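Help! Submission page says 'invalid entity' but I think these are all valid:
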Amino acid sequence: MPKGESLGEFEHLVLLAILRLGQEAYGMRVRREIAVRTGRDVSIGAVYATLDRLETKALVTSTLNGPTPERGGRAKRSFQLTGAGADAVNRARKDLASMQDGLVFPQPGELG
Amino acid sequence: MSPPSFARALLFVVAGESWAECVAGDLEEEFGLICQSRNHFAGARWYVWQVVRSVVPLIWIRMRSGEFRQAALAALLGAAVPLVMLDRLWSFVYSQVPLKDGIGRAPSLLAVNVAAVCVGSAITGTAQSSGKAAWTTALALAAAAGIAVWASAGGAPVLYAVWVVAAAPASSLIAFRWRRNR
């Protein structure tokens, strides 16, 4: 990823979901992982649009697996992080940690 | 149990070549789980709502991939350009006729327009590589034909407009199937 091109918030979530899911990272599992961990009910289309963008940026790669009966005989596309994807996640984590370092967070409702 | 067919059809229309199969598979997998844990109605409702919410992102993927650009180009060359060029030609011909009352086109000239659109659309149909691409192009041709008729200078009888809008995608799909079967 070129220097200065940072991850969007949803892109970041999708990359983290892929990292967490490992071999089981495909569209619906990524969607479910984000829903369970963040409470966001995103559409499968939004997840695939982000995965497509991440693949264009070479942050993830995909492989097409064989069809299964529970999927109505349709193929499954699994996603893996590339080296650039892992770098992007690490950089985002470092940036976030650096920004949060030493901060005193206000309590909910404290600022009116 | 299978998901609602209209929602599945909509998904295949809007999803791009490379994504339709895996998106549909993902949705069917989750649909099956919801049907098991709750009931078929809940699963169907969830499926339809997912498809509806996914329309815009999936179209966006196709626009980025260039599939829509190809369909738009085919529609432009197959339907819009022939119709607009013929319209300009008939306008010129009519301008040479003295005491011509109005700009309404003669039925024979409108028939030539329909024939030209059929030929142009059929040529684009033979150039398609897959059924999905052929359907996308057919829809784009119908839209382009409709816009070109609406924008034409001459009067456009409803029957003529219907013929043009129907003939463009039909010719393209027939030509695609003819070429595939050869």
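Support: the input was valid. A stray whitespace character was the problem, and the output above is from the cleaned input. Helices of chain B lie at 5-14, 20-37, 40-65, 67-95, 107-126, 131-151, 158-181.
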